[in-house]
Amino acid sequence: MVLRGRSHRFGDDINTDYIIAGKYKFKTLDMDELARHVMEDLDPGFHARLKPGDFIVAGKNFGCGSSREQAPLALIHAKVGAVIAASFARLFYRNAVNTGLPVVECDTGSILDGDELEVDLSRGTVRNLTRGTTVRASPLPPFMQRIFEDGGLAAHIRKHGGFHLGT
Amino acid sequence: MGKTIAEKILSSHSGIDARAGDIVLADVDFVMGQDGTSPLAIKAFREMGGERVFDPAKVAMVIDHGAPSPNEGTANLHRLMRDFAREQGIILYDIGEGVCHQLIPERGHVLPGDLVIGADSHTCTYGGLGAFSTGVGSTDLAAALITGKTWLKVPESMRIVCKGRLPAGTYSKDLALHLVGRLTASGAAYVSCEFCGEAVELLGVDGRLTLCNMAVETGAKAGIIAPSGEVLAWVRGRSKKKFRPVFADEGASYVDEREHDVSRLAPQVARPHRVDQVCDASDLAGTEVHQAFIGTCTNGRLEDLRVAATILEGRKIHPSVRLVVAPASRQVLMDAMREGVLKILLEAGAAVVVPGCGPCVGTHAGVPAGGEVVISTANRNFKGRMGNSSAEIYLASPATVAASAITGKITDPRKFLG
Questions:
Q1: Of the candidates A68, A155, A163, which has its C-beta nearest B37's C-beta?
Q2: With contacts defined as CB-CB under 8 Å, which chain B residues touch A143?
Q3: Is A77 a member of any domain?
Q4: Could you give the ipTM of this predicted complex?
Q5: CA pair distance B175, B32, nearest whole angstrom
Q6: What is the pLDDT of residues B280-299, one digit of tens each?
Q7: Do A89 and B385 touch (CB under 8 A)?
Q8: Please, is B63 exposed, middle or buried when counting C-beta atoms within 10 Å of its C-beta (0-12, 13-18, 19+)?
Q9: Domain range spanning residue A62?
């Protein structure tokens, strides 16, 4: 799968409260409603600037903090194409794969805000079309890759009737 | 070669000789969700084709984050949880019972050597009883509700040795903040932190839960303390189930082993808006505060309320400060009442709110105004955490928060301790 979009640059340690604040997420299961508030406390104009398929690009430890699955879900509903970060916090990484949000771990140091990117999920490459550079991503662990390919953990469990580690 | 506590617990629960780096499918002893995560888990449970939970006695849902419900939306999600609990016969802790991470240990649902997962990042708290416990998202919770299992990558372990005794006026929270400051928000990412050393061994049950609670603030998968005799007795008073405490083997392999001399530690404070931005309380002397908050899964326990009462006894909070106190559970509230601790807090001017999470997560019961400064015993001070992105949150021990409530400024509590 090849995704194309523009980069929205964030720093290190972006926590899940910033992705979607607690004051919103306890009230509703309507993810389209939550999507309007993504990154609001950090950048109130973010959702208005976001175009379908755009990427969030960040430094290390993206998604640290709470276990809220509303964080990847709200990003999916905000039509974020993928999150590309130098590293991810474990809960967010796991929740993203479980819910079907593409997460790409690679060196993001050379990607600037507004850069046009092309992400090849199967080959594990991030091409920076603006700067003419390409970086390689760390692959998902095989078992997580299977969950992602099944369409998330709910679909995986439904399909196999339980966990299918395939060993 | 010897094994770490994490390797031993994950081996016994997966039936394989597991080592760091292995992926295991493990049987869970208990699973938990709260009102911010359970509704999505119930939805995922249905999507997965779930009909019955694997064992209703091993599942609890806790209504604590917005309890009692502050609005219509939250009320409807609470009803969804109550209906599911009734349908499945699982344990439901409704409003007023308390914070999930107090209730699960207090009601004897977690034992030393157990594997517990919870849809809340602070599930790592139960490491204070010698369990391997970690947070998961709602869909992972749903999968465990159906299968009784979860998959985990066996983590590397980090051995954190706290040498010396904590000085008077410093507590488990100061130790936790100090360690988060040293390790940083990602310094223990994906690892299991084994806390040990004299300062840790001397901690009581409440202090152990506080320390392990904050392990996730370093990115850790789990924080674990080998159980003491006091912990074993405490657990036996709450559960009739047999259990086998787990200790690290001689020669276990650690990715990192660090010694911290804490014998001269001063009261610690985390500055806005990062938990790892930590300094001595005295460095911030004079910083004006508008709201002080004692509560949460980190510091709303009896030991915490007692310490606050020691400082507030016979004193009044500063006229320009609101002091909000949320006991961690109904039991804590009743114990505090019986001991006279509650009376001291109320006479000092505290507003005591329903046991639960409320103010910490910005749902209700103490949202600060724009530009206000809060000093809180919680574990997170992210911008907007308490419901207002222009408020500033400092994190400290119950003693430091109580002392600051009296003076109206961030205050080293040793000033009030003879």
A1: A68
A2: 23, 151
A3: yes
A4: 0.97
A5: 27
A6: 999 999 999 999 999 999 99
A7: no
A8: buried
A9: 2-137
